[in-house]
Design goal:
alpha+beta, rod-shaped, 12 helices, about 15% strand, about 325 residues
């Protein structure tokens, strides 16, 4: 069964090529390396997902025609499995990116990506294809594992906030940068910006289902807490009434208090609200009279304690 990350990448394979040069730049920033082969210079893009390979290959084919080299490499080290690599002539890449105002060698986010949320979304699409992942197991988590400068990542954080209203952060890990987003709403915004429509709908459904489950759990917890509180309160009231019955007798109570005491003994699980409705009185009145019963019980217990202490002396 495909992970949600792989489903997102599959959904991106056949999306429109709005700005192929910018998407390529995103893919390079995600997993691109400079390679020297004698006097020739190349950009190598490495991906592990077959869906990502399909998309990046189609992208490069559109930009460079036959002037690309693509192959599958079986990486046995650390059980990484198959990785897929595309080699591009560095001069061709530089020329194509420069036409969009992108300097491949600068450590800052290009101005063209800071001014247009659509172009920034296309850039994120390329970057997600090569190095992005999303986990929805116990919480919401999206991350990009990047080999970029601190200056570039700070530009990313600012751009996410300004153009998409997304809060992001990063940590250093193994001399690279782990750039992450933890809000479900923010991840949804990013998926929409990347034109991952199917995945956006699926995430929205997951958010709704979890929201409903969360509300149900909170309601059950609330009802359970109330039930426990009602049971504890009822038990104390019954103890007070039974003590009165065993000492001075229930008939010693005035009619108003006796009516409440008899009802409580016969309806041990009723809440104060249910009692008030059944006895046709205000809740505040009922509460006041229950306090009087408690006071009588306490007075009787105090008197008995004094007698017992006097006998001991």
């Amino acid at each position: 069964m495909a992970t949600f990350s792989e489903e997102v990448k599959m959904s991106l394979v056949n999306t429109s090529f709005l700005y192929p040069e910018i998407e390529l730049f995103g893919a390079i920033k995600g997993k691109g390396d400079f390679v020297l082969d004698g006097h020739k210079k190349f950009i190598k893009i490495t991906v592990s997902s077959i869906s990502s390979m399909k998309r990046v290959y189609k992208l490069c084919k559109q930009l460079f025609g036959e002037f690309i080299s693509a192959y599958v490499k079986i990486e046995r080290r650390l059980n990484l499995g198959r990785t897929r690599e595309i080699l591009l002539d560095l001069n061709f890449v530089d020329k194509v990116l420069s036409s969009q105002g992108i300097n491949l060698y600068k450590d800052t986010l290009p101005k063209v990506l800071k001014e247009d949320p659509v172009k920034f979304g296309v850039f994120l699409k390329g970057m997600f294809l090569t190095t992005g992942s999303i986990s929805l197991k116990s919480s919401y988590h999206m991350e990009f594992y990047l080999d970029i400068s601190e200056e570039f990542v700070k530009d990313l954080i600012d751009n996410f906030k300004i153009l998409l209203g997304v809060k992001s952060n990063y940590i250093h890990k193994n001399n690279k940068i782990k750039f992450y987003i933890k809000s479900s709403g923010d991840i949804l915004n990013i998926l929409e910006a990347m034109d991952a429509q199917e995945s956006s709908k699926k995430l929205l459904d997951i958010m709704r289902i979890r929201g409903i489950k969360g509300n149900v759990s909170r309601t059950i917890n609330f009802l359970s807490a109330n039930a426990s509180k009602t049971a504890e309160s009822s038990s104390k009231q019954i103890d007070d009434i039974n003590y009165i019955c065993s000492t001075i007798g229930i008939d010693s109570l005035d009619d108003n208090l006796k009516k409440i005491a008899l009802y409580r003994l016969e309806n041990t699980e009723d809440s104060l609200k249910e009692m008030a409705e059944a006895l046709n009185m205000k809740k505040s009145t009922l509460y006041s009279r229950i306090k009087k019963i408690k006071g009588i019980s306490k007075q009787l217990q105090d008197e008995q304690n004094l007698e017992e202490e006097g006998e001991k002396k």
